[in-house]
Amino acid sequence: MNQPIALQASFWNRWNEANRESKIAEVSQDQRSVVLSWLSALGRTNLDLIDVGCGSGWLSPHLKPFGRVTATDLSEAVLGRARERIPNVEFVAGDFMTLDFGRERFDVVVSLEVLSHVADQQAFVAKLASLLRPGGLLILATQNRPILERYNTVPAPEPGQLRKWFDRNELVSLLSPHFQVREVRAITPVANRGPMRLLAGRKMKRVWRRMVGRAMEKVLTSSGFGWTLMCMAQRR
């Protein structure tokens, strides 16, 4: 169900202030690690990059070594503070679907946990593709629907918060008209209900990390058990 953009902006201003300006959760830290590893593999420092749904701009300083960074989000108040903290990034506040960034302007589009919160996901993906030069790279993270639904208790959406999660096949199907999907991987095994709490509950994760490092985490994510689906795709 759609909700007015003003209501969405109000929600995300509050959410980003509480969850991104002063702390970065494990899920986001793991997403950042994957983004930076994929960008590093390109071996370039002259890229034009855009972070769509950048929140507080928490990822922007880490993107700057790879080139020129544009970052956009609904959260105008939060972006105002980001401009003061983070120099040499073009922060653009507003509704992404109505903002004009031109066509084929960027080499890389990054969008972390935004897809599930937009009203028209097909149109969103099409616009992401339109921003990329031919052969350009999309790096996208989105919530892994089966894991959240089966093994985690997640609070119901608040006013202004849209939600539609995807599984791996649904994500690939959504992207395929515009992108050649190069890789999809699950990261960050998390469970707060059911028997999987014994393996992926936060307290148990600390225990088995001390005992066997991240070996158990790799076993879980290799089987698709992870909070996040990370996707790297190339514009057709």
Sum up the structure in keywords.
236 residues; alpha/beta; Rossmann fold; 40% helix; 23% strand
Structural overview:
This protein has 236 residues and is α/β, with parallel strands linked by helices. It has one domain (5-139, 162-184, 228-235): 3-Layer(aba) Sandwich (Rossmann fold), CATH 3.40.50.150. The chain is 40% helix and 23% strand. The chain has ten helices and seven strands. It has helices at residues 5-19, 26-42, 60-63, 76-85, 121-131, 145-151, 168-175, 197-200, 202-212, 215-222, and strands at 47-52, 67-73, 89-93, 106-112, 132-143, 179-187, 228-235. It is globular and about 50 Å long. It starts with a helix and ends with a strand.
Short overview:
By secondary structure, the chain is α/β, with parallel strands linked by helices. The protein has 10 helices and 7 strands.
Query: Radius of gyration over alpha carbons?
Result: 17 Å
End-to-end distance, in Å?
31 Å
Give the CATH superfamily.
Vaccinia Virus protein VP39
Tally the structural domains: 1
Q: What best-fitting shape do the alpha-carbon axes yield? A: globular
The beta-strand count equals 7
Strand order of the largest sheet: 3-2-1-4-5-7-6
Helix segment tally: 10
| CATH class placement | Alpha Beta
Look up the CATH topology: Rossmann fold
Overall residue-averaged pLDDT value: 94
Beta-strand residue percentage: 15-25%
Approximate helicity band: 40-55%
The helix-strand sequence is HHEHEHEEHEHHEHHHE
